[in-house]
Amino acid sequence: MMNSQKELPDWTREAGGEEWRKWIKRRIAACIKRAKKWGDKRPGTRVPTEEEWRDAIWKCMEDEDCEGRGGRGHYSHLPLSLKPWKPTAWNWPSLDHLKDPATAEVVLEVRLVNDMKTIMTEQEFRSVIAHLAAVLKVQVQELPEGWQCGRSFAVEEPPANEPPLPE
Fold first, then answer.
1. What pTM value is reported for the model?
2. Which residue, 92, 78, 70, 72, is CA-closest to 11?
3. Cα 12–97–103 angle (5° rounding)?
C-alpha cells in the first residue's frame, strides 16, 4: 500500500485530522527541493528520492517518539498540531533533518523548538538549553500539561520556506 493511502496515526485525529496528508505532501515536496538545491552545489551527490522522503516522514510520524507520546515533538515532547490552520502557530509541526538534505532522516518537532535548533547539532542544542537554564537560574522541571506559548510567529511563513542547513 502506498504511504499516501496509509491510515494516519491515531494522534492526528485531534491534531488536524486529514489535513496531515496535505502537510505530508508539502513536506515531501519541500524536502525534495531542498535536497536538490543542496545536491546541485555538490556534483555527484546522491539525494533521496520522493519515495525515500515519503517513507522517512511517515516513519517519524509513526515512531515511538511521536506515536508513542500521542503526537509530540522529538526533543520537546510538546504536542504537535495543525490546528489552528496557521503556519505561524508555535506548535505547528516542523521537520528536523537529523543529518543533511542528502539524507532522508527526519524527526517531528514543534516549529518553536525546531527553529531554535536549525543550525545546531543535537548535542549543541542540549548544551545551549542547559546553559540557558544555568545562567538564568531556572530550576529544572518539565512544562505543565497543556502549556502554550504566549505568542506565535509574527510574519506568516509558508511551511515550505525552511531556512537552509549550514554547510
1. 0.80
2. 70
3. 115
Answer whether 151's CB lies under 8 Å from 90's CB: yes
**Chain centre distance of CA 138:** 26
What single-letter DSSP state applies at residue 9? P
pLDDT in tens, 111-131: 999 988 888 888 999 999 999
Burial class for 19, CB neighbours closer than 10 Å (0-12, 13-18, 19+): middle
Ranges of beta strands (E only) in 24-111 are 93-97, 106-110
- Tens digit of each residue's pLDDT (9 = 90 or more) over 77-120: 999 999 877 888 888 999 999 988 899 999 999 999 998 888 88
Separation of alpha carbons 11 and 35, rounded Å: 29
Q: Is the bond preceding 84 in cis, omega lying within 30 degrees of 0?
A: yes
SS3 106: strand
Question: What SS3 class is residue 95?
Answer: strand
Mean pLDDT (the chain, rounded)? 87
pLDDT (tens digit per residue) in 21-35? 999 999 999 999 999
| 3-state per-residue secondary structure call for 120-167 | CCHHHHHHHHHHHHHHCCCCCCCCCCCCCCCCCCCCCCCCCCCCCCCC
| Placement of cell 531542498 in the chain | 34
